[in-house]
Known about the structure:
It is built from 9 helices and 11 strands. It has about 240 residues and is of the alpha/beta class. It has a single domain (about 5-230), classed as 4-Layer Sandwich (Purple Acid Phosphatase, chain A, domain 2), CATH 3.60.21.10. β10 and β11 form a beta hairpin. The longest helix has 12 residues, at about 105-115.
Amino acid sequence: MMIRKLPRNTEGRDWVVGDLHGCFSQLGRLLSIIAFNPACDRLLSVGDLIDRGPESHLAVQWLAQPWFHAVRGNHEQMALDAMRNPPDNQERHLCNGGAWLAEQGQAERDACLAAISQLPLALEIAVVGGRIGVVHADCPDNDWRSLSARLDADNPSEQDYSTLLWSRSRVKNGGGGQVQGVNLLLVGHTPQEHAIMYDNVMHLDTGAVYGGKLTLFCINDFVEVSLPANVEYMAQFLVH
């Protein structure tokens, strides 16, 4: 499944989190601050759950939660490429914070790769009056409907992969035009000091793993909540 379409959440709130990079302590604390309710709320991720940070190994546990939905980021893609097409891709992943995966036991490594291999390239969430999209970096050609059709058909192009996982052009250019077919698109990938909107694209990577902060954005009421790095891990939201 390359795109996952979620129905409207009529019971609770939907929150979207920026790039985690193994900073699950900050995420747990943020969920405590917002009084996240796993019985009715949902947590969506723009990808890059792993690498660079201290708790990348916990990604598997979080992905097992029924209320947590993530897209694939470029770091998940690098991890998959490293295992499928060594050795050049292994070196690339190691140089980008992937040493933790090589240090895992075989069973743990297999579980992680199995989990991230199931991540879609896009999420689509039904909301009152339309839809909201989530991808890691950007939407190809600013056309959500065309992208959705290609992903539904399991037929993304190489350019789709490049834009979805790697593009920074919207941030570099200070915009790039409205993405048609969605009310709002939420992305990460390029660290910013604060969450910032270009066109109808909200950028949520605020550099938690670099000592910045981790940001949550509520798509129900457009509330933004951030927390500086290095706070105590809160594990009560994980189902053991």
